[in-house]
Structures are given as C-alpha cells and as structure tokens.
Amino acid sequence: MKRITGLMLAIVLLLGMTQVARAQNQRDFASQFMRLYAQDDASLKCQTVSPLMMERIMNLEAVENNENIKAVMGQLKSIQILTSVGAENSEDNYQKAIALAETNNRRYQLYKARERGAIYLRRRKNVIVELVFVNKSTDTFHMVNLTGNMTEDFIDALAKI
User: Fold this and answer.
1) Which of 20, 30, 128, 138 is geometrically suited to a Cys-Cys bond with 145, CB 3.0 to 4.6 A?
2) Residues 16-54 pLDDT 10s
3) CA nearest 33: which of 150, 145, 147, 130?
C-alpha cells in the first residue's frame, strides 16, 4: 500500500512539474514577435526592464511620492519596448504585430483600437497578466509589452500618469 501511495505521489509531482515547465516556456508577446521577425528587420530593437530594475525603480523617491506611479509600477513584473525606424519597417511591423495578436485571439483580446495603434490584453481569470500596446507613426513602430498581475484599475491609473 505504501508503494502505491508513493508511486501516486511521484506521478502527481511529475505532472505538476510538467505544467510548471510548460507555463514557464510560454513566451510573452514581445518575445514571440522578436523570435518571429527580428531576423527580417535589422532596425528592430528590444529593450527590457527586468524585475530587478522594476524593484529599483520602485525605491526611487519620485515613485515613492507619487501614488499613481506607485500603484502602476507595483503591479508590473517587466516591461519590453520594441522599436523600429523607417517608413516601410514601421508599417510592416505594425501589420505583423496586429496579425500576431489576431492569430492568437484566444490569448490576446483587443481592448482598444485606433487608426495608428491598438491595445491587447491577456488575462488569467480576472487578472491582466499582459498588456500589449502597438503603435505606428509615419516612420517609427513602437510596441510596449507589460507583464505582471494587473487589475482593471491599472489601465485607469496608467492613463493618469
């Protein structure tokens, strides 16, 4: 009986570790975009603000004294900023980003769209775990990818900064 219980426990742990590994291997939007398209566009650049840097930002006096910034920053884990310069690159990367979001429409839902930009959200239950802002101008493409555990009030607080 102890052998069967031990075997069952080992199987449950193995299945749990498999699920954790699978969840860690999921790419965020910006990472997926870079994996798919960075080799095609030499002007495409990605800057990442890591969790450690986010922690340092939270300790800055300007953040500690501003409740809106503090509320927003406290819900973020990382920020990735992608840029590409050039009229052709701007339009091309914007269309690729929109197509990637639409291809993954079960994962990323359109929150708001305008002529030159769109915001997509990825949720886990009632928590926003990823916010993707895609924007183009006549000669520049921008994507800001925020990850964390964000509430609905996050977007309102972000707009107030």
Assistant:
1) 30
2) 443 433 344 468 999 999 999 988 888 899 999 877 787
3) 145
